[in-house]
């Protein structure tokens, strides 16, 4: 039977509910009075009997999902409560979300203004909408319902969550990242976090418009990328590191360089034609088959790369990265979790020591200093994400804290009308005292990139 052929004659026979009473009759009243759980079970029974293929494929096939919505709508006309058209269509969508989607969070996944979904148990849902975290009114029926939805999300990826495997970290087909953890590890019930992958990559012009950086900073970063400086974007969680890295990658000349990206979960979107994308692989359910970032990086070195982009440096691969970047793989980029530009250098040094404990700290400091040319640090504010510091990494010997030369800083300026203003005005300030470091001048010359005059002569600015 095709989904379109469902008619009034295809009725579901009366059933008895869990208490043995007569099955739910056609209901009247508003949406709040509807026994959604009963209707959902009734629809599932109908689908399994008449349309098993539609029911089975609707979770992953948008066409099948649209057919499923049509079937459910027809079922509600024939067997459901007496409702106006708008309420009936809304109810049909809700039922489809329950049986073939992701329950109460389904609308959030299609909302372009929602960046992140955080489920802290079945009845506490929060979302990040346009940079602000706000509560969401939806809720799951209980912990079992939430775990069912989690497994519905990760099942197509060959993963599952249960007592033997109580947490999962994975990437959805659209690039969104999902993390879920259940009891006994989570004391407050199942927890689900989904970081959505934006369908459209933000350009550097978008970031300027959003106040992430100034036009002058954007022009400076374009020069640095084209001059093939090794750049690390640092910041805390959800500070926008990957978004900024994506924008910087757009400055790489198209077709002239072979770019290899290495990520845990593919989030980078390069529009260039000569790009190779690599993604690590977690172990399977038997604990086998894992492929790490470090293994992929070592393999990438044999693939004749012009630039290597590591989505996030977080472990022992840092040792191989600083070795490679300090010996000729110019123009490479990565991100790292850190609270400042200085801490970013120290974290890379600490992670590099994990890759080879026999190397002295002094040698590691020299490797890090030689490998990294520029640090871009980003933070999250109530009104959005901002680049709060850009600094050169000088090649002078000595402690890492003596090697940073600030170029731009995000500075707070007290409000002249009210010095005690809680949220003072702020601005992006150029703080570099020229001339620029020799390595920038040399790399720019080799790449045929013209440097702005203020980098060389100390041109005044407001």
Could you characterize the architecture of this molecule?
This protein has 15 helices and 15 strands. The chain is α/β, with parallel strands linked by helices and about 450 residues long. The protein has a nine-stranded mixed sheet, sandwiched between helices. A six-stranded antiparallel sheet has the order 3-2-1-6-5-4, with no helix packed on it. The model is unreliable at about 1-35 and about 415-425 (pLDDT under 50). It is elongated, with a radius of gyration of 27 Å. The protein has helices at about 35-50, 50-55, 60-80, 85-100, 105-110, 145-155, 205-210, 215-225, 240-250, 295-300, 315-325, 340-355, 360-370, 440-445, 455, and strands at about 115-120, 125-130, 130-135, 165-170, 175-180, 190-195, 230-235, 260-265, 275-280, 305-310, 335, 375-380, 385-395, 405-415, 425-430. The chain has three domains: about 5-100, no CATH class; about 105-195, 2-Layer Sandwich (Beta-Lactamase); about 205-455, P-loop containing nucleotide triphosphate hydrolases (Rossmann fold, 3-Layer(aba) Sandwich), CATH 3.40.50. The longest helix is centred in the N-terminal third of the chain and has 18 residues, at about 60-80. Helix 3 packs across helix 4.
Provide the fold topology.
Elements (H helix, E strand, L loop, with lengths): L35 H15 L1 H6 L4 H18 L5 H16 L5 H4 L4 E7 L4 E5 L2 E5 L6 H12 L12 E5 L5 E5 L9 E5 L8 H6 L5 H12 L4 E5 L5 H9 L9 E5 L11 E5 L13 H8 L6 E4 L6 H9 L7 E5 L3 H15 L5 H11 L2 E8 L2 E10 L10 E10 L11 E6 L7 H10 L5 H5 L5
Parallel strand pairs: 7-11, 7-12, 8-9, 8-10, 10-11
Antiparallel strand pairs: 1-2, 1-6, 2-3, 4-5, 5-6, 12-13, 13-14, 14-15
Helix pairs in contact: 3-4, 10-11, 11-12, 11-13, 12-13
